[in-house]
């Protein structure tokens, strides 16, 4: 079986071990098992870091939603004050509206960022092996100086 795999890729590491010559079947089995376990440990570590990042994104999203909900409450209060004062509403209400509106726009943009980041994280979490493999091939300096 001849394959032209990047030696930094996880599949390349595993294939090289399988294609190497060994003095006997037991030595081959031990080498293949060891490399598979090391790759699995690397993927588990990567998966843990992905989950940590995803949890941070979720936490940021929760905070942004709570802040947006608080702004919704401020907007309700402003509306109530506007109904109460009617046509005699002064510049203070306009300033409050501008403040709330600006903070709401910022919060909406934050929620959009959180959504993009969540989608990015979700795509990596679906396939942690492929995600780690992609990082190893895309950023060889991460791999430099490591056994594999």
Model description:
By secondary structure, the protein is mainly alpha-helical. Helices cover 82% and strands 0% of the residues. The protein is built from five helices and no strands. Helix 1 packs antiparallel against helix 2 (25-85) and helix 2 packs antiparallel against helix 3 (91-126). The chain starts with 9 loop residues before the first helix and ends in a 5-residue tail after the last helix.
Overall shape: rod-shaped
Write the H/E string, N to C: HHHHH
The largest sheet, given as strand count, sense and whether it forms a barrel, is: none
Helix content: over 70%
**Count of discrete domains:** 1
Overall pLDDT: 89
Kindly provide the radius of gyration, computed on alpha-carbon positions and rounded to a whole number of angstroms: 27 Å
């Amino acid at each position: 079986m001849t394959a032209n795999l990047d030696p930094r890729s996880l599949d390349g590491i595993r294939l090289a071990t399988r294609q190497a010559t060994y003095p006997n079947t037991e030595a081959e089995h031990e080498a293949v098992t060891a490399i598979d376990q090391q790759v699995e440990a690397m993927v588990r570590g990567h998966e843990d870091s992905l989950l940590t990042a995803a949890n941070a994104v979720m936490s940021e999203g929760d905070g942004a939603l709570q802040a947006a909900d608080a702004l919704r409450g401020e907007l309700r209060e402003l509306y109530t004050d506007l109904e109460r004062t009617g046509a005699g509403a002064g510049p203070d209400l306009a300033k409050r509206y501008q403040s709330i509106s600006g903070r709401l726009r910022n919060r909406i943009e934050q929620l959009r960022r959180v959504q993009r980041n969540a989608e990015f994280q979700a795509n990596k979490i679906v396939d942690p092996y492929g995600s780690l493999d992609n990082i190893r091939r895309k950023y060889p300096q991460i791999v430099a100086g490591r056994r594999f």
